[in-house]
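Subject: Sanity check before I submit

Could someone independently write out the structure tokens for this chain? I want to compare against mine line by line before I put it in a report. The sequence has 491 residues.
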Amino acid sequence: MAGGITDTGEPYSAFVGLVYMFNLIVGTGALTMPKAFAAAGWVVSLSLITFLAFMSYMTTTFVIEAMAAANAQLRWKRREQEETDESDSTSDYSDDDSGRGRSEPETKPILSVQRAGHIDHFDIVERVEMGQMASMFFNKVGVNMFYICIIVYLYGDLAIYAAAVPISLMEVACGNHSCSAGSVKYNDTDPCWGSVTRKDAYRVFLSVFTLLLGPFTFFNAQKTKYLQILTSLMRWIAFTMMIILALIRIAKGTGEGHPPVASLSGVPNLFGVCVYSFMCQHSLPSLVTPISDKKRVGSLVLADYVLILGFYVLLSFTAIFCFDSSLLHDMYTLNFTDNCHVLDIPVLRYFLGLFPVFTISTNFPIIAVTLRNNWKTLFHRDGGTYPWVVDRVVFPLITLVPPIVVAFCTHNLESLVGITGSYAGTGIQYIIPAFLVFYARRHLEPVLGRDAVNKHRSPFRHSFWVWFVLAWAVSCLMFVTANIILTDTKK
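---
Independent answer below. Compare away.
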């Protein structure tokens, strides 16, 4: 995630880029969306998710524009360095020559170089991660705030993953799969195995999950291409099955869902879930840079957001009209494991119940290593190195322990996703992209001039949109915080 310039990777077509972006965005958050839709009401949910999709699309175009600006600045600095080196080398031959060699390295406009060499300095050919862009365009305080925001978001991600896997295992192990439990709502204190309660079983599975996957935090983990293909295939099979099964039940007239039109009490949590579910800004450099033909990258992003919005609406609406709102699980797949009226094939029910276990488990070590590396970057000082104990023990422990403790204390996935999306998600999806594009424009204008045209500039190029995004982000944070305080006061 955050970091410096990395290898671009193998190039791929615009269509493959569209698929990669779709797979990146549609993840765990989508499984928590049906319950959030049911709580907020279908009209409110449809309106809010459409607006949030638009806002996320806008900030995605901001990040792409900032990536192009970062590439232009890197080329400018490289050209300056080359001219300085050339002028230094000519000074060995003649003082007169050196004077001519240094005539205009600092003031020659980049546009003249661009026209002379037929080079578009805004081509996105180097992968510049968000952390590197923050270092280029922000001051020291801004860079530190960026890393803190990324770290908080990754902690939330890990807590969600650490809770989601044991929940799925608990429901499969403790649930009644005899086709008679479709309308049963279990409590944490209900028995699972004899005197062992469901909450105890959840913590046992969480402990096993920590022991098996926690050690990867102390090493480096990388998701291979084939593992990515396998997890994507499983995800699409599961999502397609759930949508089709819900549609069949609704078409037969046996759907049990009667969601409200609007319920404002569910809006704050729906906001967090939707923001989390549209998150991709932090991974855009890895997705966009390898695309071989970037002429259509703007159309690609727009098409992706339209498809994802349609997919989320289809998944959530079929869910809330198929199942009774009071029986919807935090993890939507679990509604198919104990309801034979919807799915009466045991193998497929177990597949849907356990599919999050495999897909999430493969992501947990990668996110943990990313968080560990961001901690190292935040405290790193030029020329300094960490002692072995700090590097190999302390950083992995501060990465692993907090999310596991949170998961031990609560397994309310809807709240975890909502809080992560509402706070850290707002920073990454709204505030950071807005400031990146704002300072990128200000930073490069003296060098490039007002006539320079960034071919990847956002359609929302007026500064009004930057301030609109920031005002929206601040108002959302205030609204969510006020709602949490009022809710706790009522309790």
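---
OP: Matches mine. For the report I'm noting this point. The longest helix spans residues 42-90.
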